[in-house]
Amino acid sequence: MRRLRLGILWLVVAGLLLGVNPAHGALTVKSQAEASGEYITLSALAELPPDLSQKCGSAPIWSAPPPGEVYTLTQEFLKYRLEQMGLMHLFEGTSWPAAIQVRQSGVPLKGEEVVTAFRRYIQEHSPYPPNNLNIEVFPLKEMVVIPDPQVTLSFVAPRSDKFLGDVTLEMAILHQGQPLKRLRVSGVVRLKRQVVCATRPLRAQTMIGPEDVQVVSREVTGLNVDDFYISSDQVVGRILARSAGPQEIITTRHLSSQPIIKRGDNVNVVLDQGGLEIATKGVAQEQGHPGKTIRLINPKSKKEFQGLVVDAKTVKVQL
Q: What pLDDT is stored for residue 17 in this prediction?
């Protein structure tokens, strides 16, 4: 992969190198050199005049050694590479060492810095509190060498703002404000929330009671925000369309879409006036679902009124 990138870089700089004027004195080629970063550049191997350094000093000759290792570039190898790149004419009259020893002067990018930057970006851009997120960052696939530790890690805003499940972000490495490299950083982001769960086995076609559910912290990474419930009041009194096991999260798939009150059902009506509750009776004039308002009629006065469905037997009227 590094050789492929090296080949691409040669093609990019080739156009610039064709117009280089060789009218300089003999260049000095070093016998000991240092590379900073991923590549051994021309300016690392030879002392170049300012104009040549600007035009072709960054031309990549070969991949740089990892930190702590030394590469030996022989005279024959270097001349071959320079011929390939159209640079050999710059070295007319140059005295060549038998080989050049090249060391890496850069340092490896610390994995913990990448992890910290990735987590910080997710926490700052996620709609959920940081304490609700569990972020696992995968190690980089290859070592990244930087000139010195003073770099800035900046993430490119992704097209999608979905930061749950498998997440891959593009990270830019900046040195003194200038981009050095871009790479992809991947991880898994898990979300925990307080959700309604079953306290015991619940059978299908039964109504959920207050003792059947509780609100606990559970992972909901694979669920949409509309799939689960955060308050017991949202499910108590509802009919189960499917069974639920102990500690299982109650989702919309568990609850029946059938009305819990049918037209003509006799229901208990709770009249609430400033906290004072009065119980009476009523007859449903239409089907009712939990949390929905339905029309009812007083069986004695025959007057019609509206109430909020609480469960299969109860409707509440706020006075």
A: 46
pLDDT of residue 32: 95
- What does the pLDDT average to over 77-102? 92
For 5, residues 6+ apart whose C-beta sits below 8 A from its C-beta are none
Strands 276-284 and 266-273: antiparallel
Listed residue (241, 251, 240) closest to 209, CA to CA: 240
Fill in the DSSP letter of residue 166. E
Residue 173 lies in a domain: yes
pLDDT at 24: 57
Domain count, the chain: 3
Parallel, antiparallel, or unpaired: how do β-strands 133-137 and 178-198 relate?
antiparallel
What pLDDT is attached to residue 10? 47
3-state secondary structure of 202: strand
Question: Which of 75, 105, 135 lies at the terminal end of a domain, its last residue?
Answer: 105
Domain of residue 300, CATH code: 2.30.30.760
Cβ atoms 87, 19 nearer than 8 A: no
Query: Which range, 14-23, 77-86, 288-297, is most confident?
Result: 77-86
DSSP 90-150: GGTT----SEEEEEE-SEEPPHHHHHHHHHHHHHHH-SS-GGGEEEEEPPPSS--EESSS-
pLDDT at 313 exceeding the cut of 70? yes
Q: How far apart are CA 309 and CA 314, in angstroms?
A: 6
Residues 290 and 306 in one domain: yes
Task: For residue 140, give its domain range.
Answer: 111-190
Cβ 248 vs Cβ 197: under 8 Å? yes
Confidence of residue 2 (pLDDT cuts 50, 70, 90): low
Helix segments in the chain, DSSP class H: 2-18, 42-45, 50-56, 75-85, 111-125
As a whole number of angstroms, the distance between CA 214 and CA 234 comes to 11
pLDDT in tens, 226-282: 899 999 988 988 889 999 999 999 999 999 888 889 999 999 999 988 888 889 999
